[in-house]
Amino acid sequence: MAFGNFDNGNEHRDRQSNQDRGLLGAGWRPLSREFDWSYFFHLASKDPWELAHKTLDVSSDIADALGRQNFTWWANILNVFSEYTRGDFNDFWDYITPAPAGPNYRTADMLAAETPVVQFVSRDSIPIDYVLKRLQEITICKVLDLLGRPDLITQYYQDRHFYYPIERFSTWERIETIGTVYAYWKKQDIWLQIDHLGRIHNIGRNQFQYTLIANDLRSLINKATYNLAVMLSGYQSRVGQVHSEFPIRTFPADIQGFSDRVQEAIFTQPQLAVLVHGAPGTGKTAWTQAVAKEILVPLGYVIFILDHDAVENFVPPTYLEKICIIINEADNLAQDRGSEAAQRSNKTEHILSLLDGTLYQSVLDTEGIKAQQKLVFLMTCNTTERLDPAVLRKGRIDLISEFTHPFV
């Protein structure tokens, strides 16, 4: 006896079913939406005509499945449970039941990063964008390490919701992601969203975007970025830690006294610019590293060390609350704009805009983390005579000291 074709689905449904089976094989389980009377009454009171229309539609589909004349009664009952009819009923069920919990994008801090970060790097260009993306990726990974195992993991794919058993969670790399994954930490009230961006063929790996969403991410970001430093240079650009070979106590007494003044100003001023100058070999660069390691890092500052080319294109990341920018050989960068050398680049204008805050504060972000930043600039130069006079103007440089003692 012929039963006919009970499955009226199309090729799209077949592909979806294959992907669903892949998720189930990877440990995911279908997430059933629970009926909520309060939500149903709210829906009925706010949109009764749409509710009635959808109810009649699904009732009609079930009646059509049961009322076919060319099939036996039990074949018609089986047809009610076919993928086509079941899909219509699932759509109706999704309409009358509240959606699974998800992040609130309107009143939240958000920090996103692609992983793995891929970009071609050459010595002909400073990979500022690449290194800053790596910093963002490292920050999110460290935040996830601090958070530990989430309380909920779900995935939305092809109009279906799945959940991942928490007891099976080990690492995020082991989570099969083909749609959009959501994870939630109840105690911290933080969401993580993972989106599958596609496959990177030249490295043979899938790329994802991780987005942290919470009312306030600043404290976690401060913990995650503790003791981090970024070097942006034409020779080597990387994310690591500050290394200082000489402690502040090994410098001459007058420099130690100046260091105390710098430390006091760091505590009292939201932005501080310090310039030290002197002949080569007087310990200027070593002093900036010592101040960064002994004073700024313990206070939670992220250190950025910029060379000639990086200065011209660097903008402080807005999600970091405390930033220290070290610029060595400033007299070769912020040269007098009346000189021929300074007219061949925009480095002087860029340093001035960094000191003023006009470069990155003139347009405020409407999304992302809105942190009140504290900035410290540590600059060194051999002589102040070649600096543009605007750099030394009151309001830009707060503290100046001349290093006169040979330092090895």
Can you tell me about this structure?
By secondary structure, this protein is α/β, with parallel strands linked by helices. It folds into 3 domains: 24-96, no CATH class; 109-223, no CATH class; 226-403, P-loop containing nucleotide triphosphate hydrolases (Rossmann fold, 3-Layer(aba) Sandwich). It has 12 helices and 14 strands. It has helices at residues 11-25, 37-46, 48-66, 73-80, 83-96, 128-147, 218-224, 253-268, 284-296, 308-311, 347-356, 358-361, and strands at 29-30, 109-115, 152-157, 160-163, 180-185, 190-200, 205-214, 229-232, 238-240, 271-278, 302-306, 322-327, 374-381, 399-403. The strands form 2 sheets. The protein has a 7-stranded antiparallel beta sheet with strand order 1-4-3-5-6-7-2, with helices on one face. A 7-stranded mixed beta sheet has the order 9-8-11-12-13-10-14, sandwiched between helices. β8 (229-232) and β9 (238-240) form a beta hairpin. α6 crosses α7 (218-224). The longest helix is centred in the middle third of the chain and has 20 residues, at 128-147. It is elongated. The N and C termini lie far apart (97 Å). The relative contact order is 0.11.
